[in-house]
Amino acid sequence: MYKDKHKLLDHLREALHLKHYPLKTEKSSVHWVRRFILFHKKSHPQEMGAPEFQAFLNYLAVGQHVSGSTQNQALNALVFLYKHVLKKELGTIDAVRARRSKHLPVVLTREETQKV
């Protein structure tokens, strides 16, 4: 369908713009699609499917240790690309999900607060 990746990214921008997505979302989506293409050695997304999609998401979670929200951002950008630009069904994606951070809130007791 779109063999030139630059034209593909232009079509992605146009589709996001037509659906009234904010400019920041547009830039982020283009970034993730570009990373996806580069991760697969500049293969065109039209030629790739669920296994490549899953491999990229696994790489982000396991290899890059990205947060869950970052992985979701990449996932949403790629799903939008396949659904609205390439008009291609991906099927079931069974990727490793990034773990939520385990930040515990620091709360001082009354006695600790009085000491400070």
User: N-to-C terminal Cα separation, in Å?
Assistant: 65 Å
Question: What Rg is obtained from the alpha carbons, in whole angstroms?
Answer: 19 Å
Can you identify the CATH class? Mainly Alpha
Fraction in helix? 55-70%
CATH architecture label: Orthogonal Bundle
Q: What is the CATH homology-level superfamily?
A: Tyrosine recombinase, N-terminal domain
Mean model confidence by pLDDT: 86
Strand content: under 5%
Number of helices: 5
List descriptors.
116 residues, 5 helices, elongated
Structure in words:
The chain contains 5 helices and no strands. With 116 residues, it is mainly alpha-helical. It has one domain: DNA polymerase, domain 1, CATH 1.10.150.130. The protein is elongated and about 65 Å long. It starts with a helix and ends with a helix. The relative contact order is 0.15. The mean pLDDT is 86.
Give the gist of this structure.
The chain is mostly helical. The chain has helices at residues 5-18, 23-39, 50-63, 68-85, 110-115.
